[in-house]
Design brief:
Alpha-D-Glucose-1,6-Bisphosphate, Chain A, domain 4, single chain, two-stranded antiparallel sheet, elongated, six-stranded antiparallel beta sheet
Length: about 190
């Protein structure tokens, strides 16, 4: 488990989920001011993103879940709502969810921002997703997108890390595709002066 020290300079995700078992980070440089980039991040709807590669990955995942459900009579599904865990307006936004998401029987938990940090139930993992924007020179902005996963017990951690070996690559593809969409939204806002 990795633990990061917090400081006045720390990222918000470091405060929300300082200890984690797996992480993935993607970046995108955009030609716009930080406030324009942040508006696109804050208004982003991940369900609005479609591409042949992305739709193919989700179709493959859904097919695998259907087979697992048929074999084990399990229920699956995506979380309907991610909880906003924190925000530094104009700079950072962190959302999260919890559940058992590495097994054929996927179970999502509704969790409040206050309960997220205290959640320590065996078999229930936490995912925090953080977006941050930082000025990059005089006319550009660097957008970072990090997803962290934390598991409370060794059995869940071992099972998740085995699952992570399979899904880390596809997760990176999803994140890069979503960042491309955010970058397009940034360009549109910058052209229209939003």
């Amino acid at each position: 488990m990795t633990e990061r020290p917090t400081s006045p300079e720390s990222m918000l995700i470091d405060e929300v989920l300082p200890e984690y078992d797996a992480t993935i980070v993607e970046f995108r440089l955009v030609e716009a001011a930080p406030e324009v980039a942040y508006a696109s991040v804050a208004g982003f709807d991940p369900k609005s993103v479609h591409s042949a590669a992305l739709d193919g990955l989700f179709a493959l995942r859904d097919l695998a879940w259907r087979f697992a459900r048929a074999a084990k009579n399990a229920e699956t599904g995506d979380p309907d709502v991610w909880t906003k865990l924190g925000e530094r307006p104009g700079r950072e936004l962190v959302v999260g969810t919890a559940g058992r998401f590495w097994t054929p029987r996927v179970e999502w938990r509704s969790v409040t921002a206050e309960a997220f940090g205290r959640l320590n139930e065996p078999g229930i993992g936490r995912i925090a997703v953080g977006f941050a924007v930082r000025p990059y020179g005089t006319a550009r902005t660097l957008i970072s997108y990090e997803a962290r996963t934390s598991l409370p017990d060794e059995r869940s951690r071992s099972a998740f890390l085995a699952y992570w070996l399979l899904v880390r690559g596809p997760a990176a593809v999803v994140m890069r595709t979503q960042l491309r969409t955010i970058a397009r939204n940034v360009r549109t806002r910058a052209r229209h002066g939003d």
